[in-house]
Amino acid sequence: MIEDHRILHGVHVVLRPLSTGDLRRCVKWFSDPQVTQFLGRAGPVTLAEEERWYHDYVRHGDEQIFAIEIDGRHVGNLGLHKVDRVHRKADLGIVIGETSYWSRGYGTDALETALRYGFDQLGLNKISLDVLEGNARAIRSYEKCGFVREGIHREDVFKDGRFLNVIRMSILVREFSDRRRPAA
Ligand SMILES: CC(C)(COP(=O)(O)OP(=O)(O)OC[C@H]1O[C@@H](n2cnc3c(N)ncnc32)[C@H](O)[C@@H]1OP(=O)(O)O)[C@@H](O)C(=O)NCCC(=O)NCCS
What we know:
Oligomer: single chain
Shape: globular
Helix content: 25-40%
Structural class: alpha+beta
Number of strands: 8
Bound molecules: coenzyme A
Strand content: 25-35%
Number of domains: 1
Radius of gyration: 16 Å
Strand order of the largest sheet: 1-2-3-4-5-6-8-7
């Protein structure tokens, strides 16, 4: 069972556990082609599908999904998926669904906050993610946080009539610690 008392504070963002009351907003975002063009998943989704997904998520407990809030407004989600306590690794996913909040530094702030939580609180050694090759804004944001490219899954996603490459990126705890250490 996941704990529901985790509130993480970034510079501008607050990450808090996603709740059922948030799902209608998620349906809106995951049905918006402006948003879904950057995601591996196919849209749109229905509220019933989101509710089913949420029910499974709560039951499994190997992932933690946070709502990203800015000034009290829920603008996106960030998830740590496949949290593996043996190999001390997890996958990360992020979406800012309110497009007017893109490219204002909030995604990077949320990512840094989640990395701190994953490495410091969960004791992870490695956090990885997949990103569509053409998603330059996301890649830039990941690189700003210290993620490096591990490799490419060639033509891994079929989207809008085309096969797209997916880039695998990751960051290790020692790399994250080095970035935090003040320069001598
Ligand atoms: C990806 C996402 C989480 C990034 O969050 P964000 O708040 O928009 O990103 P940030 O503002 O923190 O950083 C984006 C960086 O990319 C830059 N950027 C924006 N558009 C760009 C583009 N087309 N090409 C290259 N860089 C771009 C920004 O200038 C900024 O870099 P800078 O700070 O050096 O100027 C958010 O845009 C989002 O949710 N997009 C839609 C869904 C998505 O792509 N999710 C990720 C799936 S892997």
